[in-house]
Amino acid sequence: MTPEELRSLTPGVLGILVRRGADFAAAEDAVQDALVEALRVWPDDPPRDPKGWLVTVAWRRFLDAARSEAARRRREEAADQEPPPGPASSVDDTLQLYFLCAHPSLTPASAVALTLRAVGGLTTRQIAEAYLVPEATMAQRISRAKRTVSRVRFDQPGDVATVLRVLYLVFNEGYTGDVDLAAEAIRLTRQLAATIDHPEVHGLLALMLLHHARRDARTGDDGGLVPLAEQDRTRWDTALIAEGVLILQAALARDRLGEFQAQAAIAALHADAPHAGETDWVQIVEWYDELARLTDSPVVRLNRAVAVGEADGARAGLAALSDLDQTLPRYAAVAAYLHERDGDRKRAARLYAEAAAQASNLAERDHLTRQAARLHRQL
Amino acid sequence: MAKYLLLKHYRGAPAPVNDVPMEKWTPEEISAHIAYMSDFANRLVETGEFVSEQALLPEGTWVRYDGEGRPPVTDGPFAETKDLIAGFMIIDVDSHERAVELAGELSAAPGKDGKPIHEWLELRPCFAEMPTITE
Lengths: 379, 135
Known about the structure:
Chain B: InterPro entries: Dimeric_a/b-barrel, YCII. Chain A is mostly helical. Chain A has a domain at 3-87. Helices cover 67% and strands 0% of the residues of chain A. Chain A is built from 19 helices and no strands. Chain A has helices spanning 3-8, 10-19, 24-41, 50-73, 90-101, 108-119, 124-130, 135-148, 160-172, 181-195, 199-212, 238-252, 259-272, 281-295, 298-312, 314-322, 331-341, 345-358, 362-378. Helices cover 24% and strands 27% of the residues of chain B.
């Protein structure tokens, strides 16, 4: 059994404990203990029924903890027998866990950490390593998150949109560590798609698959960022693209458009072009218009200006840009790109240097600095 | 989440409000100051926002490469160096506002007469990771 297969059992096991009457925070600790134990014991002694093993070990841990708690408080707990699981199915449990871990009372970072542990089955140490913080800090972040949601009823219906935002964050802002967070986000979104029929869940899954397909091509031999137009498209993962497109088409056919479907549609149009020059920019602009209508986000309008520049020429792109707030992140980078396309290399070089000074991550800063250097050499 | 570096200076920062050098405090005032700093770090572990901290000695050496096969050149400390860092703390917080709030709390550490030092701390954002989805 792979670590991913082991982790996929987490929500089901946790759901069983909660339905047996364990409170969420204690049950979640018990399941975490059982997972850590499984990672230790299973390589040498794999169980015949992995889920049954986890339920048994987690329930025992829960009872031990409840008993010592009871002893501490000097009162009896009536948690000794193993009551049968209630009538709800494990699919419902899984969905409820997603809702609980993405509850709107949590900050995004807390929701991410709790989702990765309680739904994803990652250990606190793995999550801490992934987000480059000490294990003790991450442990506290998770216990505070559990305290925050302790009054939320487990069977309370939640909002899919909040869950999707959390999964998007895991995918998009995941740091690199021992665990591949992008792959984990895809796994969790797949699992969600299996529990709830919602076109935006499929839209997000398609979006992730289409971007994940390009991952190897995004980095050059020197470790630097390779922009979309310059990527070696033979390195794109065609199987992931095909799957993403299929999922997206089925979602779009439901005619309930949302921002993730629109973003995935743009990614699919890029994926569809064998060469950058064959990209259907006119359609991409149309999708950005849809996206702007759905989100009213200035970042979307900034990206739209790039697409307009490709579809109708640099001048049109600059005109689209002129309506936007110059303090937007990446504004200078977009302006630099469009001015170079318009033939104004001097201005583009200056803007690239300005954009590099404003970049919020090193890969982008280095890329923008190289762009400025390339233009300076040509001046 | 975003990571920020909080920098405390031996010199180079604007003068604090309660500007009495530490050797002129009472031992109890020094203990109270140290306890405040340590409580602050512990509290950030509790809130899930602590990453790391180090205090630095005032001494330092400048080092540079001196060519193939030669040992590095060392020099300094240079008296004219205006900026001397005393220590740092790295925090991982939800927003810039939260980082400012925490820096403000740290600057309230007690000094002479148990009153806040109102020391200037430098707050610097760390680079984030490159997001996967940019277009």
